[in-house]
């Protein structure tokens, strides 16, 4: 016989006494939730909790549709401290498996106009496919390096930049590249790909003779065929795949004279 907690029962779940003991290990008081929020607070060790934006990318549904589900109470959510700045409002996390089940039960949401208009994930894959067909490997290498920034830890990302950015620099015409040292000693690199876009990096490596400048180093980011790629790009590819694709394109970056 399942020992049902009222909160879990409200969400249509039941747990055994053993599972209750396992769930009791979660310290809910770590998450400051105002009592008036009226949240259903769920904990499941196998559940994956994601932001609305990340959920939209994984399910190919508009972020607006995803947000409407927790705003209307169709899905529970949990608050979590914002990792980018503790001064920001807490993030709202949704249970991914329950979201997918809800979308399966309501297939019309996947084909709603906002959902079709929001295919950021698909658009990025389309951009990647276009870059893969180019004879010039530089934009593709820059994109994979930007995407690695979402998944890699800082030492891994710094090591990748020290390997890749010198190659990108040497294979880019002088008129289409820029490097400078910011007042805080951080390095900035900007690469242009005419007809395609550009990429910007906060770099641990700078070419010899890079001038000091009275401007900050950029955040990692870029634009490819009109599609912006930000410093904190939600993961759309497994980390291992990003590393594999980046390694595959590096041999094509052959320095040449301009």
Strand and helix map with partners:
Blueprint: H1 6-10, H2 17-23, E1 49-51, H3 52-59, H4 63-71, E2 78-80, E3 91-95, H5 96-105, H6 113-117, H7 120-132, H8 138-151, H9 154-170, E4 177-181, E5 187-193, E6 197-203, E7 221-224, E8 227-229, H10 239-249
Antiparallel strand pairs: 1-3, 2-3, 4-5, 5-6, 6-7, 7-8
In words, what does this structure look like?
This protein is of the alpha+beta class and 258 residues long. It has two domains: 6-117, no CATH class; 120-252, no CATH class. Helix content is 38%, strand content 14%. The chain has a five-stranded antiparallel sheet, covered by helices on one side. A three-stranded antiparallel sheet has the order 1-3-2. A hairpin with a 5-residue loop joins strand 4 and strand 5. The termini are far apart.
Task: List its traits.
38% helix, disordered N terminus, five-stranded antiparallel sheet, globular, single chain
What is the structure about, briefly put?
The protein is α+β, with helices and mostly antiparallel strands. It has helices at 6-10, 17-23, 52-59, 63-71, 96-105, 113-117, 120-132, 138-151, 154-170, 239-249; strands at residues 49-51, 78-80, 91-95, 177-181, 187-193, 197-203, 221-224, 227-229.
């Amino acid at each position: 016989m399942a020992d049902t907690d009222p909160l879990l029962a409200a969400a249509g779940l039941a747990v055994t006494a053993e599972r209750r003991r396992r769930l009791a290990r979660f310290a809910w008081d770590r998450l400051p939730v105002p009592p008036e929020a009226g949240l259903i607070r769920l904990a499941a060790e196998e559940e994956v909790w994601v932001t609305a934006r990340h959920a939209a990318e994984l399910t190919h549904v508009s972020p607006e549709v995803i947000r409407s589900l927790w705003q209307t109470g169709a899905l529970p959510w949990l608050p979590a401290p914002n990792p980018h700045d503790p001064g920001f409002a807490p993030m709202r996390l949704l249970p991914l498996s329950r979201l997918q089940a809800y979308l399966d039960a309501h297939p019309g949401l996947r084909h709603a106009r906002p959902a079709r208009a929001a295919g950021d994930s698909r658009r990025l894959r389309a951009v990647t496919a276009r870059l893969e067909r180019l004879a010039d490997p530089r934009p593709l290498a820059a994109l994979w390096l930007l995407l690695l920034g979402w998944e890699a830890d800082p030492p891994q990302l710094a090591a990748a930049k020290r390997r890749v950015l010198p190659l990108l620099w040497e294979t880019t015409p002088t008129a289409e590249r820029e490097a400078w040292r910011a007042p805080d000693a951080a390095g900035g690199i900007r690469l242009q790909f005419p007809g395609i876009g550009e990429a910007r990096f906060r770099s641990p490596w700078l070419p010899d003779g890079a001038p000091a400048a009275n401007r900050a180093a950029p955040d990692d980011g870029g634009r490819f065929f009109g599609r912006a790629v930000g410093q904190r790009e939600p993961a759309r590819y497994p980390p291992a795949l990003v590393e594999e694709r980046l390694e595959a394109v590096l041999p094509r970056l052959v320095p040449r004279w301009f």
